[in-house]
Write a structure and sequence with these properties.
The chain is 50% helix and 6% strand. The chain has two domains: 90 residues, DNA polymerase, domain 1 (Orthogonal Bundle), CATH 1.10.150; 198 residues, Intergrase catalytic core (hpI Integrase, Chain A, Orthogonal Bundle). The protein has 304 residues and is mainly alpha-helical. The protein is built from 13 helices and five strands. Helix 6 crosses helix 9 and helix 6 crosses helix 10. A hairpin with a 3-residue loop joins strand 2 and strand 3.
């Protein structure tokens, strides 16, 4: 029950940290559950001297808090000496955002405009398009897209509501689960996520055996993993001419929220769509990026 308090993603993240701590304890001939603050400080300093970044060291701090009981009346992670050490790590090796800018959403949208109508698309292109539009319009994480199930999709003539019932990274007692609302886009049917979703459901109905929305492209057509969805999104970026050595699948969340902010969408609306609380500083610190328009600048300079 204690371990079930952690999300599966947290368990996976802590696994390598706890293995590293176990190896360190063996080298010191002590048990991993020993309540010794000096040993904890020595271990975290060793990580720092191994050129690990702030976020990795902070993850190790959280992992130790999970298995080591209180020391001097404090949890390991909130012990004054540990807090002071992490503050020192943050000052000397501050955590940097993954991106200083983000790619232009128009790159992917222009790709979709060049593709044939949904009815003429291959199942692979139709799947990539659906995943791309869902990622852009919902501003949700890949984990949320993976959790979409047919039994929790409610359709009407003008919109689609998708209720997420699975536990997510952000799931907490007392917090509402995400509800993704998709509306028809009449200005350009090629960019309409509702039309794309409906076509996808029609095309997959003949072989669908699973409730998960997104299925693999080949037999036995099982529900795909988060890693597969990430690969699909990266493939879209590559086809749209976006540098995938810099931008990953998660950057869809950066790109869509940044464009919405630049377009004048109220911050509270962006927070609600992306699943951030109104007091969250995550958007300002990590997601609100300038849109990389360097290629546009070059085109204007070279244009006759």
């Amino acid at each position: 029950m204690l371990m079930s308090s952690c999300a599966e993603s947290s368990k996976a993240q802590y696994d390598s940290a706890l293995r590293r701590w176990h190896k360190f304890c063996i080298s010191k001939s002590v048990i991993p559950f020993v309540k010794d603050i000096n040993l904890v400080l020595e271990y975290l300093t060793l990580l720092y001297n191994s050129n690990l970044g702030y976020s990795t060291i902070n993850t190790n701090r959280s992992a130790l808090s999970l298995i080591i009981g209180p020391i001097d009346g404090f949890n390991v992670g909130s012990h004054p000496l540990v807090v002071r050490l992490l503050k020192g790590v943050g000052r000397s090796r501050p955590p940097l955002p993954r991106y200083n800018s983000t790619w232009n959403v128009d790159s992917v949208l222009e790709l979709f405009k060049k593709w044939p109508n949904n009815e003429a698309l291959s199942i692979k292109c139709l799947t990539l398009k659906l995943v791309g539009l869902l990622a852009l319009i919902s501003a949700q994480r890949v984990q949320t897209l993976h959790a979409i199930e047919l039994s929790h999709i409610k359709s009407s003539s003008e919109s689609v509501e998708i209720f997420i019932t699975r536990n997510l990274k952000t799931s907490k007692v007392g917090c509402k689960q995400p509800c993704i609302i998709l509306k028809r886009y009449s200005e350009n049917v090629k960019l309409c996520v509702v039309s794309t979703l409906n076509e996808y459901l029609i095309r997959t109905s003949s072989y669908r055996k699973y409730d998960q929305l997104l299925l693999s492209l080949f037999s036995p057509f099982v529900g795909v993993s988060t890693q597969t969805i990430s690969r699909w999104l990266s493939s879209l970026l590559e086809q749209a001419g976006v540098d995938t050595s810099i931008y990953t699948a998660h950057s869809f969340r950066h790109a869509s929220t940044s464009k919405a902010c630049k377009g004048g969408v109220p911050i509270d609306v962006i927070f609600a769509c992306a699943g951030w609380t109104q007091r969250s500083s995550t958007f300002a610190r990590y997601y609100n990026k300038r849109i990389d328009n360097r290629d546009t600048f070059a085109d204007c300079v070279l244009k006759k």
